[in-house]
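QUALITY CONTROL LOG
STEP: pairwise intake check
CHECKER ROLE: data steward
CRITERIA: each record must contain a sequence immediately followed by its structure tokens, with no blank fields

ENTRY 1 OF 2
RESULT FIELD BELOW
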Amino acid sequence: MNEKRMMMMEGDKEIMKKLDESTCDAQRLQLQTLQSILQRNARVGYLQPHLHHLQASQNDDHDNDNDPLTLLHPDTFRRLVPLSSYEDYAHLINRIADGLDPSSLLSFDPLLCFFYSSGTSSRGPKLIPYFDSPHSKAASLLAHQGSAAILRRLFPPQPTGDKILWFLYAGTVTETKGGFKAMAASAFPFHHNNSNRPSPILSMCASPKEVILATTDTHHQMYCHLLCALRNPDSITAIRAPYAIGLIRAFRILESMWEQLCEDLQYGSVSPHITHAPMRDAVCTLLGDPQPHLSNRIRVILEARQWSGILPKLWPKARYIACVTTGSMKQYYQKLKFYAGEIPVLGSDYFASECPVGVNLDRTQPPELTRYVILPTAAYYEFLPFGIDTGVAGETVDISGVEIGKEYEVVVTTYRGLFRYRLGDIVRVVGFYNSSPQLEFVMRAPTSTAEDLTERDLMSAMEHFQIMLRDEAKGEVLEFAGYMDLESNPRHTTIFVEFGEEGMSLMKEKSVGVLSRWCSFIEECLGGIYKVQRKRGDLGPLVLSIVKPGSFDGLLLSAVEKGAPANQYKPPKIIRNRWMIDFMEASVVLQATTE
């Protein structure tokens, strides 16, 4: 074992020790974290209406250790500062982004940039300020170093180095009117490096930086990622993407464009449909001379069209596949396993744009058994009780007050200007690691008490429908989303469904009566609240809308054009954005109701 590898192993042991220690006295560390946040930011503009009467009149120094705001007890803090959501910050954030107000309204730390969230589960992309907080950087560094150490413990680095087929899209960076950069959180390492050296991630990627940093159609980037990895198939040791849907979309391109990929390898050129010049030139350089033998090897594998277990056939040295597979990504897990064959599919961590939340200590578990351990130094956490029948209600509890088996919405106070901020994530407490809660991600929270359909209910119903569909017609649901029309009387729910090619051809042969039966089947599988409201007449008949092939890909492209980061895009399960609803309604080719 060489000296460099031994040093890495020792370093990983130290990181894991720190990570473990950070969960041993979680309550004390949480108190320290809140005090540290208030020591720096208790006097920001956002908090003044709530805490101004506690200010020491004789002292205007916002980070003095004797300031009563710094020593504020968590119970007092929760009593004085109200719960908040993004809407409570949107006006302030937009004015800061436009250069109209100082960033000290939210934090006294320097403002580096803004992160875009995808906004697919809300009414539009969110702009999250990213402040240069030393405490936050230390906590985030520990979280990310711990995550990397856990992965290296499972799969130690290869002596010859690791090359990853990594589906990353970090090129889209905009600038606000105030001159601040705005990007996806996952793009930050590529655009902010104090050493002015390339991000170390780039050296691990099979694709050149021009593919990752391209500002072009993500389909073209996916194609180039695949082509680069096929050029050197025996060097690929892993396949990764931020979310499971990113891998599924890429492998669908592999299915539909394999002949063109083989042709590009054969002639050492790039398909004319790739028009982004820097990306095209970089890929051509990587391809080098024509590779007829390699092309033939790949073609023999792909022309059989046996997609089950295709990945280890193409990349025989790939040791794992890694991405987020929980929450709305759970629906893609079995399809990933289908492609992966013998290659293990690993889960990822629970890191939000606002702050890290939890680390996954056992990545080999399937989505339903994935657990996240809360990181007590990353933010101050509260938990708002959530009930199937009552929704989110009651008072928050801290990490010492959570109960195993109960569900909560996560609330965070961060080093970066968010105070008692509702993340909009519903989690279930499933245990403790040392004294830190272990969480299971359940779903995105409903945004209104009028919503009778949860993300969990919809996904469960569609899972049952997919099983029935396979048994009956051997079709495949590629994607789906629900929309609740709260303005109609009575209000009603529409479910948009996109089938694969086989399913669409079968649809042409089916009568409207069969489609209505399918609609009734789905409605019967929906949750208890929905059924109660339906029986009372508060809800109208369910509408099943079949959309044309490619509709959800079109939705992605439109969302990216409107500012959603491609790297973090997650297809919405409950659509609330008006333009998305209009887009899907315009894509409908068949429709049925339960009437």
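ENTRY 2 OF 2
RESULT FIELD BELOW
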Amino acid sequence: MIYALKTVLKRFVVSARTWSTEYVESNMGDFKVFNDCIHGHIKLNPLCVKIVDTPQFQRLRNLKQLGPAYFLYPGACHNRFEHSLGVCHLAGKMVEALRRNSDKNIIITDGEKLCLEIAGLCHDLGHGPMSHTWGKFLQSQSGSTPKKWEHEEASVMMFEYLLENNGLREAVKDAVPEMKENAIQFIEELIRGKGTVRSNKKFLYQIISNQENGIDVDRWDYFLRDAKQLNLNISFDYSRILEFCRVIEVNNEKIICFRDKERHSIYDMFQVRMTLFHKACLHDVVRTIEEMFIDALKAADEGGYMIHVSDDIKYKLSEAHKYAKALNRMTDHIIFDIFYNIEGKFKEAKELLCRILKRDLYTILDSKNFSTELVARMNNTQEVDKVNKAVAELEKEIQEHIREISKDLKYCSYKDFKAIKIKLDMGVKKKRKSEKNNPFSNIYFFEKDNVDEAKEMEWKDVTVFPVPEESIHHIHFLIIYKDMDNKKRVSRDANMKKELDDFRVKLKESWGTFGNRSEHRVGDM
């Protein structure tokens, strides 16, 4: 009898093991493997693969990650498509790390993990042509956007359009039975970085778009991807942060916290962001090219360039982003659609685009760092509202100063001078104006011998920082001359060139009235 029972149990165990193995193999067989240049082989859930294989997601193949930086850095040819795959992959890795490192009462379900992967995959669906340059173009259009355009909201709109247009709404609901009706809302909340569907699990909202302190997998991927494509050496390694993160309850909220010794790795993360922006996104030449693209888009919009959705429906360029069907038809291709137009339209826009391609750029006159001057003006405070007020006052003074020293010019016009504000910081959004810009103010750390309690770290305790707290801002202004008149071009007119050379000398000599001696940034020209 006992022998018979043992035999039955043995067969049951063997049978169970066989079923389990077959089940896993069957499921893994549905996964699709992508060979990525950053993360190696990435396995995507079958539902994620269905999302990837839609026209709305494939559109991301034609949106340059760094926009106009490609016109300075030849390697910056990567797109939002591969970045989105990377964020999806890292979201899954972060979930596994939190499961592994946190207490057993911290539960992340498979459905929640899938929602995070889908959110990571779709978080950039709403980007417009030339990525962030599109947002700057919209901001330059007075009256067309009553409030600042956010690509996250556009991504939610495009996600809804993707689901509806490809019949995937029910597939998403069925894949997350524990949420069912709330699954799509939860994914959209994860894209935004805030929500109520899982209000008792705030840490889930910190994985894709961390609104608290900026430590999220979206940044991790673009740090590594951008640096590789730009051929920049960086020291950031997200794997250490994954090894030493866990969920802890702080002030009645469950949030992601980090081991105290990892402050160095986190500092590296913020420093990498500053390096990437300083050397690429906000490089003086990149910003000059971006200004020309923005002016070209404005000229095309004023010239009547339309986004056609059907024979009967079309939208102005500056309005099209509000409609999913129109945004779905907008990629970087519109730049060349304008440039190659054969109907004699958009002359001004075409001339500007042609100048970019011929490297006949707006004239860069000077670049001045005002960081130290701002510290003095703010009396060493870092409160957000006071910083913004000081920058606005300085910007107004600079524009007035340019007006003053250009009043006697004969060949150049004051209206063609522009002071481009370039603000570089740690990239952490602050919820309250009275908050400081110290990025460590919203990061919680735990100690090795006390893993269930976490606290913020004082700036002075982050010993790796090479600068005092009041100096973490980098504010500088790029002064350019927009010679947009095709008949009066600096490159062709000796009088204009001589006059601008003299203006440049006056500008350099007069910077002393604003603070430090003029400082130039050296880039890959």
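INTAKE CHECK: passed for both entries
DESCRIPTIVE NOTE, ENTRY 2: The CA atoms of residues 1 and 7 lie 10 Å apart.
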